[in-house]
């Protein structure tokens, strides 16, 4: 199933140089075509069929000679792309010199060998103007010839989702392939957001913050803290009073008297500090409670602890 390589070099090279041209050419195009043709012969004989195919195709574009199609068909056959080889050799027989020649005989023999080894796909497109491509090549007709194996057909059309279909065939198959594209789903328009209407009174509305106000949580935290401190102050004060009574009931020369006096003073000081902390927590609870009621006009309140004539005093001032 191959064209004999021993004939390829001599016969095909002569075909380019001496065959009658299919169209008028200038000397520059003919010279460039000859260069690509000779490079293709070298690449083919060295086993690089892909490179030889590209050079042969360029030589055909420049020369327009039908005889170069013979070379292209032989190269496609070496690459086992039988459908493309069949197409090139048929064009060679149709467009070339009809007189008997070794090339025509080899081309006809190759066609008889390759034609049983292809399959045919009949394409049914929806929509009818969908473009179908196979291996990067756009198909023009509704019947395509492929070689044995698995092939991927890609279909596209404006306004439709693209589709790919895989089909596996063997030699001699004739298969119908349906390519039904689905319309592209319309995109729902996005409704514009209307701007907020201004306050007719010209005043800016107070902002509303989602979630529970932070001032309320702080208020209850201070209430709990103040209550705990007040309980601690009460218990510590009770111990201080009991210690002072015990100290008062003892004689001056009693060895335990100094220790009781020192302990009573410490307990009294601790009770005073706890009571002071409870007062501070209570004042803070008042402030946070007022803040939680309104956030647009926070109260201007200051709470201070100042020394007085009889000890420390709690002083608060501000507007409510």
Give your account of this protein's structure.
The chain has 320 residues and is an alpha+beta fold. It has three domains: 5-115, Tetratricopeptide repeat domain (Serine Threonine Protein Phosphatase 5, Tetratricopeptide repeat), CATH 1.25.40.10; 119-180, Immunoglobulin-like (Sandwich), CATH 2.60.40; 214-319. Helices cover 49% and strands 18% of the residues. The protein has eight helices and nine strands. The strands form three sheets. It has a four-stranded antiparallel β-sheet with strand order 3-2-5-6, with no helix packed on it. A three-stranded mixed β-sheet has the order 4-1-7, with no helix packed on it. Helix 1 (5-18) packs antiparallel against helix 2, helix 4 packs antiparallel against helix 5 and helix 7 runs antiparallel to helix 8 (257-293). The radius of gyration is 51 Å and the shape is rod-shaped. It starts with a helix and ends with a strand.
């Amino acid at each position: 199933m191959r064209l004999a390589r021993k004939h390829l070099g001599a016969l095909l090279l002569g075909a380019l140089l001496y065959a009658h041209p299919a169209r008028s050419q200038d000397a520059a195009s003919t010279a460039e075509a000859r260069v690509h043709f000779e490079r293709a012969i070298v690449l083919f004989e060295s086993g690089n069929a892909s490179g030889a195919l590209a050079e042969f195709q360029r030589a055909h574009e420049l020369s327009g000679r039908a005889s170069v199609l013979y070379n292209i068909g032989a190269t496609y056959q070496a690459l086992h792309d039988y459908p493309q080889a069949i197409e090139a050799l048929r064009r060679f027989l149709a467009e070339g010199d009809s007189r008997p020649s070794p090339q025509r005989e080899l081309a006809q023999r190759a066609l008889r060998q390759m034609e049983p080894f292809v399959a045919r796909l009949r394409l049914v497109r929806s929509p009818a103007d969908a473009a179908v491509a196979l291996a990067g090549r756009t198909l023009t007709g509704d019947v395509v010839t492929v070689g044995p194996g698995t092939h991927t057909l890609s279909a596209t059309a404006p306004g439709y989702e693209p589709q790919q279909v895989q089909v596996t065939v063997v030699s001699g198959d004739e298969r119908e392939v349906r390519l039904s594209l689905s319309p592209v789903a319309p995109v729902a328009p996005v409704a514009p957001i209307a701007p907020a209407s201004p306050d007719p009174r010209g005043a800016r509305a107070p902002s509303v913050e989602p979630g529970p106000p932070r001032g309320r949580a702080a208020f209850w935290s201070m209430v709990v803290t103040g209550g705990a401190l007040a309980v601690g102050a009460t218990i510590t004060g009770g111990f201080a009073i009991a210690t002072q009574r015990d100290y008062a009931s003892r004689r001056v020369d009693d060895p335990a008297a100094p220790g009781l006096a020192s302990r009573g003073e410490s307990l009294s000081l601790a009770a005073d500090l706890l009571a002071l902390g409870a007062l501070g927590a209570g004042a803070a609870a008042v402030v946070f409670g007022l803040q939680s009621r309104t956030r647009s006009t926070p109260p201007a309140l200051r709470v201070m602890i100042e020394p007085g004539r009889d000890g420390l005093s709690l002083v608060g001032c501000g507007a409510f």
